[in-house]
Design a protein that fits this description.
Helix content is 26%, strand content 30%. With 94 residues, the protein is of the alpha/beta class. The strands form two sheets. Strands 1-2-3-5 form a four-stranded mixed beta sheet, with no helix packed on it. A two-stranded parallel ribbon has the order 4-6.
Length: 94
């Protein structure tokens, strides 16, 4: 009986923790970004699906699989390249 009660309590506790994490992130906007060149950065807003490339100078060259935003490519809906960015890598948004 004690083992069954412990299992039930463990399952209930795990469900409560999972529910609280789910509600913590519900409706939260995720943003990604970082450097993509010397003086150039990128940012992504998952609410709008927008990528913004900003800064001054040229973007680094990346192979397709190594672009900083590679894991979210299917979620990108628009790209803005701000003035000051002088070069974009060959396969940036392939």
């Amino acid at each position: 009986m004690k083992i069954t009660l412990k299992r039930i309590l463990s399952i209930m506790l795990a469900a409560a923790v999972a529910f609280s994490f789910g509600s913590l992130f519900a409706g939260a906007s995720l943003s990604y970004g970082g450097p993509c060149g010397d003086g150039v950065t990128w940012s992504f807003d998952d609410d709008t699906g927008a990528v913004v490339i900003s800064g001054t100078g040229a973007m680094d060259e990346y192979a397709i699989m190594y672009r900083p935003w590679h894991n979210i490519c299917s979620e990108i809906k628009s790209v803005s390249i701000e003035s000051g960015v002088t070069g974009i890598c060959d396969f940036a948004f392939y």
